[in-house]
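If your schedule permits, I should be very grateful for your opinion on a structural question. I have a record of one protein: its chain in single-letter code and its fold written as discrete structure tokens. Would you kindly read the sequence against the tokens and tell me how you understand this chain to fold? Thank you for your consideration; the sequence and its tokens are set out here.


***
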Amino acid sequence: MKKLINDPRHLVREVLEGLVDATPGLALLDTENVLIRHDDRPAEDRPVAVLSGGGSGHEPGHAGYVGRGMLAGAIAGDVFTSPSVDAVLAAIKATAGPRGAVLIVKNYTGDRLNFGLAAEMATAQGIPTEIVVVADDVALRKTVAPERRRGIAGTVLVHKIAGNAADRGLPVEQVAQFARAAAEAVGTMGVALGACTVPSVGRPGFNLADDEIEIGLGIHGEKGVERVHLQPADVLVDRLVQTILDDKGIAPGQRVVVLVNGLGATPPIELAIVARRALARCREVGLIVERLYSGVYLSALDMPGCSISILPVDDSMLQALDAPTEVRSWSSDGRIAPERRIVAAPATAYATIEHAAGPQARQIQAVALAVAAELAAQENLLADLDSQAGDGDLGASMARGADAIRGLPESAFNTPESACMAIADALRRAIAGSSGPFYAVGLVRAASSLQGKAAAMGQDWSAAFTAAVEAVEQLGGARIGNRTMVDALRPAADTWANELARGTEPLAAFVAAVAAAEAGAEATASMHPSLGRSAYLGDRAIGVKDGGAVAVAIWLKAISDRVSVVR
């Protein structure tokens, strides 16, 4: 791999520093990878803050669209990984006042969870925050339900329309309404001529023969919905355009704007050919093309290929798209910032409650450390499973979670309640993708079930575990058979409760629950995925166990083994 980078671990920060150095009016939070439009006005005088973000690797999205007339801030996660809840909340608090914020979120599980939780927290703290989800990928029309489609390049058009609404001083509800209207109307479809290379991985995400391409790809290096032989540009463009028109019901006579987006390694000469045909095809079918944008708006690192977005517009949308903006990735004037501006990030830590050490403190800590050790030991296994049906970050996420658990003070384990809350907070901070919010919400719910108990018996732990599983199901919407971590969690919860109800000895009941979790994880290999990132692969994911379910079985077994030793 040959890349003009330094240490891959510092890549995202250095990208943001480069943007701040070269662009006046921007600032970078000191402890979070958050770029904001610097605003000296008191918070109560600020308009609605439009924010976006997600995994890095999509430059110029998202940080490239921070500036007057578009975004108030952008939250950058690691490459192809959702930013943390804390980073999103810091961005909201750094940019928004009592008029509120609108978060524009591409439809990926980690982004929905982390941005959604941050929005709830901000609203509770007096900053009304709306979520707008963009799911514009029409390639998935036969694979997943419309609400489960990916958000891709059409998101940039939503940024511009929402940013203009906020710039005009509209209230948060109307800004969100304009953004949702654009998000629901826009359709996008892409084609890849090859794979991209994630810097930390160092090799392409998949291999194509010289005469093969992927139709209907995403923007995280995943495969498309169909592999076909290379075809002339005009043939491919006609297919992309027609698929969008059919899916979105765009009829002759409608006014539209067209965005031709390069995915990172497509030269301008090829984008010009694509744009030429996209314009011609739209006119051939009777559309009135009001605007044509062509360039790199939302990339996928160094992926060769492009996407086409079509958005029906009326006068108000067109005026929003035409409105002036200082954002250079939309229209650049070439100025540079005189110096880098760094501002302090708002505090986002939760207040902690001190608990006196209970009789189970040492045992709880020993079990937690045993879980951490086993998750760290199984990092490669989990990474391999996730890379076959997802983005491959699960192993690293669980290893970061293990480190976070090991880093907790001894007092965190004083009571069952304090242990669950401390681990929830640690995992929420350490794991930026989907797993962090799921584990955090489950552990918070378990802590509520264990509130006030200096020690917990088998029935108490079972009830807390069932409460945690219910919280995970409610947050993610998954049920048994969706091929997620719930396929291990729910059988374990039900088996544990049922065995105790029959009078089974507590440890034996828990061992049965672990076996149920392992069986549930094993069963995911034969399931058709319907939720999570593996859903984008459809039947191509069959034969591989779900990494999240396997992780659940691993840590439950670690608990069982440790409890058996000290019993």
User: Anything to note?
Assistant: The chain has a mean pLDDT of 91. Residues 8-182 form a domain with the Rossmann fold fold (CATH 3.40.50.10440).
